[in-house]
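About this split. The held-out portion is used to measure sequence recovery: a designer receives only the structure tokens and must propose an amino acid at every position. Recovery is the fraction of positions where the proposal matches the reference. Here is one held-out target exactly as it appears in the evaluation file.
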């Protein structure tokens, strides 16, 4: 009897362990969010705050989720809500969710950045009922993961990377790049020269909400381009712009015409003179 009791006890312990292993991922899920802590934004332009989150339970469609962005110390002071009447007047028509909540993406876009848009901006997720679209008991504000904005009043200058040596008649590549925090509206980069066929543009995600737009110009310099200015202009969403300029130093290709032409002329003259001498000798003979 004692043996059977021990076996039964061991069997129960084993079942508990198996159940703990199977269901631990479910019960171990917590409310989590990853938000960029601090980000620069150009006043008058736009900024995108990257945000991802996780919630307990199975994955849900966007229709069953409600995303809200609010001030850290007052969740009723909302920067974004699907019901625009609940948004602060100073943020109405300026905020938008770029991510899909069903994919656990809560990325926020803020347009026409103003001086007072410092934040902190905190994300809140609510699970809503299927029928009446009202929030249930599953909701959470990530007040420990909030974003703050540092204001830039002047547009940053683009960075130019020219070749050290630009040779006349040979293809040359020059790049102009600018870093920004508005991935939804790329800065527009233009050159003081070059056609569309000579320009290629690349966008890179640097991380932490920072993006880089790079314009690559490939052109064939001429002799007349020496000591002329090449200008790159970056125009940001909202209208602000900045420029960077450098002076082209074109190395001329080696030209030996000043040596070759006289030598050829002398050789031709000598040949003609030699033929005349031969003809004169034959004539007298």
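Reference sequence for scoring:
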């Amino acid at each position: 009897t004692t043996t059977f009791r021990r076996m039964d006890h061991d069997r129960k312990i084993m079942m508990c362990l198996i159940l703990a292993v199977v269901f631990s991922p479910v019960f171990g899920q917590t409310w989590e969010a990853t938000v960029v802590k601090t980000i620069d934004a150009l006043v008058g332009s736009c900024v995108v705050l990257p945000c991802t989150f996780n919630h307990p339970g199975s994955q849900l469609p966007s229709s069953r989720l409600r995303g809200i962005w609010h001030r850290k110390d007052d969740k009723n002071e909302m920067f974004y809500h699907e019901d625009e009447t609940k948004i602060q007047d100073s943020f109405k028509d300026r905020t938008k969710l770029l991510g899909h909540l069903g994919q656990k993406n809560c990325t926020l876009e803020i347009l026409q950045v103003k001086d007072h848009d410092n934040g902190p901006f905190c994300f809140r997720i609510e699970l809503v009922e299927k029928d009446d679209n009202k929030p249930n008991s599953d909701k959470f504000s990530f007040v420990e993961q909030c974003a703050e904005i540092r204001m830039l009043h002047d547009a940053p200058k683009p960075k130019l990377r020219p070749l050290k040596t630009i040779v006349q008649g040979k293809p040359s590549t020059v790049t102009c790049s600018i870093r920004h925090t508005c991935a939804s509206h790329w800065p527009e980069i233009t050159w003081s020269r070059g056609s569309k066929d000579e320009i290629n543009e690349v966008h890179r995600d640097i991380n932490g909400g920072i993006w880089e737009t790079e314009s690559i110009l490939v052109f064939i310099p001429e002799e007349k381009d020496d000591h002329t200015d090449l200008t790159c202009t970056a125009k940001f969403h909202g209208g602000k712009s900045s420029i960077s300029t450098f002076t082209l130093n074109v190395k001329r290709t080696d030209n030996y015409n000043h040596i070759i032409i006289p030598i050829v002329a002398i050789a031709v003259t000598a040949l003609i003179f030699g033929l005349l001498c031969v003809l004169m000798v034959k004539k007298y003979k």
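Annotator remark: The chain is about 20% helix and 40% strand.
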